[in-house]
Amino acid sequence: MNPKQTPMKHTLWITLALAAAFTPLALRADDEARKWHFDMSLYGMAAGMSGDVTVKGIKTDLDVPFSTVLDNLEFGAFGRVRAGNGRWAVATDVIYAGLGASKGPVSGDVDQWLISPTLEYEVCKYFDAFAGARYNNISAEIRGPFGRVRSGTVDWWEPVVGGRVKVPLYKSLSFEVMGDIGGLGVEGTGLSWQVEPVLSWRFSKHASLQAGYRWIQSDFEQGSGANKFRYDVLMQGPQIGLTMHF
Question: Most CB within 10 Å of its CB: which of 31, 140, 193, 201?
């Protein structure tokens, strides 16, 4: 992969490819279902991390207790764009998190981008299934008695499959749980996954508020010896967001 290419350039090509695959299916939908709808979401997230990071052969254990993660939450944000017609939709999630953790004399900071273009299908009123890809872009720095070591930029793609359960609660309130798994079958990747339970309030025809929590597990390894990079980290934290519906 060319490191000079930006994450957004990768996302553009993948989204266009998914749109090309989706368009014929949408055109064959029933006449009454041929109404496009668009959702645009923006979330803020108080993100913490735990796990271990290896940079240039130096392993750093940042596997901190849950209570410590909550005490050291840093910044995360993500946006989502979704275009649907009938039962089919294409969507792209973009997540950025500036993470940090410390354990004893060792500390680490990570800048992480996750970009996930997907193709979705509404199986029934209460469940959507989706498949796509996830682009990971990570820059890590660890500090300790050994000094300061930086990873540079490490990135990779992985396939993703998942689903979303939707449960109406009361009038404009609903509860959703999204989950996915990825990484299997790609060289250097272990199991990656994420889970996102959200309570949503549709307070107007064109807007809704969401509050929930998100867990994102990433596992990737490349190189060996003094060139080894390993990122086995769980990112988690509460989140709140706004979605506009068109």
Answer: 140
| pLDDT at residue number 30 | 47
Segments of the chain scoring below 70 in pLDDT: 1-34, 70, 72
Give the pLDDT of residue 47: 86
The pTM score is: 0.82
Tens-place pLDDT, residues 47-60: 888 899 999 999 98
With the C-alpha atoms ordered 162, 167, 168, 169, is the resulting torsion angle positive or negative? negative
Encoded tokens for 119: 């193709």
CA-to-CA distance for 31 and 3, rounded, in angstroms? 45
Alpha helices, DSSP H, located in the chain = 7-27, 66-71
Sketch out the chain's domains with CATH numbers.
7-28+43-241 (2.40.128)
Burial class (CB in 10 A: 0-12, 13-18, 19+), 101: buried
In residues, how long is the chain?
246
In this prediction, residue 14 carries a pLDDT of 56
173-209 burial: b if 16+ Cβ within 10 Å, else e: ebebebebebbeeeeebeebbbebebebeeeeeeebe
List the Cα angle 6/12/15 in 5-degree steps: 140
Residue 22: phi, psi to the nearest 5? -80, -35
Which of 192, 164, 201, 171 is CA-nearest to residue 51? 192
